[in-house]
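Troubleshooting entry. Yesterday's outputs looked truncated, so today I'm pasting the complete records for two proteins to confirm everything comes through intact. If either block looks cut off, that's the bug. Protein one:
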Amino acid sequence: MYDQPRANPSQAAMTFDQMLERVRYEGAHPTRERAEEAVRTVLAALGRQLTGEERVDLAQCLPVEAALTLTAQIPATEQLTGWGFVKDLAERTGTTPAVARWDTGAVLAVVTRLAGPDLLARILRRLPGGYALLFGQAELRRPEPAAA
């Protein structure tokens, strides 16, 4: 998995400082430090949910500091739905689900721009239901498997 060259190994489209300023704007955070806290907690939580090539490819799209936060996490053995993701983040940070959802939306809006539509589609296929809305996308119904 790691020995294959990646199609786009170029540097991220924005620096970590630019990412923080964008999240600060998106989330209406009063300080850069609050935006950084949101980035680190949301990316750590995403790192616990995302696996495989999508995790590696997303890390390559992010500024180095953000990529390290994402990839430093050991993937969870149980994947959470989008709502479960928000509730887990709220519990871990000691905030309300509303604040956790707000932070998630602000961070993932920026991540969406950095990842691009193709990688985002792959990420959403890998994750359980409920994540599309967190990334600011329409939540389309997944086809149900045919009954045997």
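Protein two, checking that the full record survives here as well:
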Amino acid sequence: MSAIGTLTTHHVGVNVTDLERSLAFYADVLGFEVIGRGAKEESGYAFLGRDGRLVIALWQQAEGVYDSGRPGLHHLAFEAESIEHVRAAEAALTARGTTFAYEGVVAHQEGAAAGGIFFHDPDGTRLEISVPKGAEAAPAPSGTAPACGFF
């Protein structure tokens, strides 16, 4: 074990261009609860979570759209309880007009039981909702390469 002990992810901070639009997406569509929010001059922020536990911090301090070609966040992945929950999320996101990287649920790679949906938030940040099993019958968009790696 390292001298600093075992680390776990506490939360992820995401820069957004429009806090209200992003709150509508992350809270209303994805179901995160707002557990705090505030403002500083022209910028705002919101803390989102589940059962009072912080998961995502939204920071309104960006311009433009997400650029997958720049260093930094590749994608943000959420694990669902079941493949049925992934499909319910897909339906909710489709009804909202969300942009998907692949059509429907896909396997993480050929022959994998793990899989999910891959899509973009209002600023283009890449997101995933997946499960470790239940996607056995789904196609694999990238053959043996991970589906989450190249969208």
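Both blocks look complete. Sanity check on protein two: The first helix runs from residue 19 to 29.
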